[in-house]
Amino acid sequence: MYKHIFNSVLLAIIGTSSFAQHAPTIIPIETRQNVLVLQTDKDNHLGITYFGKKLSQPTEYKLILSQSRQLDGNAGIYNSAYTPAGTWNVSEPALQVTHGDGNKSLDLIYVSHNTAKENDNVSLTSIVLKDPVYAVEVTLFYKTYFQENVVEQWSVIKSEEKKPVTLEKYASANLYFIAKDYYLTHYNGTWAKEMNPEEEQLTAGIRVLDSKLGTRANLYQPPTFSLSFDKPATETEGKVLLGTLAWSGNFKMEFEVDSYHNLRLLAGINPYASEYPLASKQEFKTPSFIYTFSENGKGEASRNLHNWARKYRILDGEGTRMTLLNNWEATYFDFNENKLSELFKDGKKLGVDLFLLDDGWFANKYPRNSDGSGLGDWQENVKKLPNGIGYLVKEAQKTGIKFGIWVEPEMVNPKSELYEKHPDWVIKQPQRPEHYMRNQLPLDLSNPEVQDFVYGILDKLFTENPDIAYIKWDCNATTFNPYSAYLEKSKQAQSKLYVDYVKGLYKVLEKLRAKYPKVLMMLCSGGGGRVDYEALKYFTEFWPSDNTDPLERIFMQWEYSYFFPSIALSAHVTDWGKQPLKFRTDVAMMGRLGYDIVVSHLNEKDLQFSQQAVAHYNAVKDVIFQGDLFRLVDPKKNDYAALMYATKSKSKAVLFAYLVGNRNGDGSDTPIRLEGLDASKNYKVKELNLYPGTKSAIREDQVYSGEYLMTAGFNPVVNARRTSVVIEIEAM
After folding, report:
1. Is 546 among the residues known to form the active site?
2. Which EC numbers characterise this protein's activity in its record (predicted)?
3. Yes or no: domain 324-624 corresponds to CATH 3.40.50.970
């Protein structure tokens, strides 16, 4: 109550100040439901005065003043749209520089802005800010996706100074929020334990989420979060912002609750060991910070992101995906042409579209028979594959399936010919002992020669084998002892390495996609060690975790689903976990379905079930890929989990339900209220993936109204005897 009284007094004081006589520039950044309002003060500093639900009368934006301005009239100290360092600002900066003369001060004054419509849905607003003393210019970009309620924000920093300017910190976004309280949900983990959520109330001070790992930067923490305002948001209620940084390297996100209990958010590349020199007339573009806001809970916010990602970001996001059989858990490194040919037949028998050959197919001087050698030597191993990859592609095609292959082109084993020939291509300190993860080191992608080498690996595979239909691109090590022989030789700053590595990776991927635009590619990094929306411009899907235990995957995929649609998520049926084959299959059907099992070891009923499951999946996968996702029962808070996908037309849906724990009961004995249906339509339900010899507990002759299913609910009958259930719901 006292805060609101104080703010009313503050507004009255500001209203009688010189600011009232100054005509401010007001820039609303609008989507269909929301708005970010930017406004200049009396000194032409640009601040954020409002963020949230869009007003029906835009003229009223001029009435809004920030409720965190100090009484001494120094507007923008807290609510700056892009906070500079070294002058009037006393908060954590978005931009910090050292000028060519060594001075570290910076001010940013509004100059101009422009909004251009790319089409009926997409608009781009650019706002130019300049330092009145030094020749430094910043352009803030806000790209809005109107219908999806998504904003993509970045900055471009330019210098006209005669001497190089050093960027000490260079955020992509600087946002400001006013609310009663703030609740941050972020994620932690490690290999096979990805996406563990933690929710905390933010208090005074700065909460930092960051990565300093270089490659595989998301291993311990992804650049994604949700932020609830006033109170913790649920699936269907509450104000919430979902945010993610589109960058495949070190990131930093700072959440600062200021002296007035308002919240500043800074997001961008981590400046750790990454001071970046900017020569005269050069510019530096920061990666995109992507966010969506909803006043109706996390469910609506995540559907906003899904709709945007499928249409505008994920490669072929509105297309489809192939089912596959992977050999990794069937053979590991121990295989030959005959073994693989038999697996091709197993894939055809199973009914999948594609066979994926995993690690171990290359290197001769140091054969790739374990993860300790051969990485970097991308010639077929003549002992395992005497007739080469081309023979395997043709054999797979003869069997009736397509062929895909695993690569890890950014990495090298010290025990390899590549390392012997080009030690200068490897990221390592010249005078310190090498430190490995999975017995390997990253190649230096800041080096154009290395970029050409990495591109050449894939180009050679495709040129010699144009029918390769799928690539699994892995990245299994972080960056230790960062040092670039190339940067040293070319007399460039070593502090460029972390940033230029990622830029080099994108150059390779951009060149690859220009020549091979349609090949399906999985983004893998020992699991979810590199998952972001810049990389997903070039990949059709990602591998969430090497942990394929289906019980664990329910929780992981639940959390990933807030930020990524199911068409981007790879899920395999494996032998991990203690659950029956049906449970493992049902869980994997919530993404791009694959198998990593020995098909020949399946008994008659297991094989029959799997064949039917692939057929069922192919019949409903478009609903799963393109439908709206509704998370109905949270496995973290209940003994069972339930979610469903519904088409935009509300004519078809698929419901998944799983028993995740029955210490306190025998599963679900109460109906689940469904979502995403049409209350006026009638629906029939049908259980999919029934194991041979079992009968459904669902009455398939019953007709339900959409109103009934969403109000009274539907009981999928999940219990200790029916631990997983898949239901198809179709309008009559």
Report:
1. yes
2. 3.2.1.22
3. no
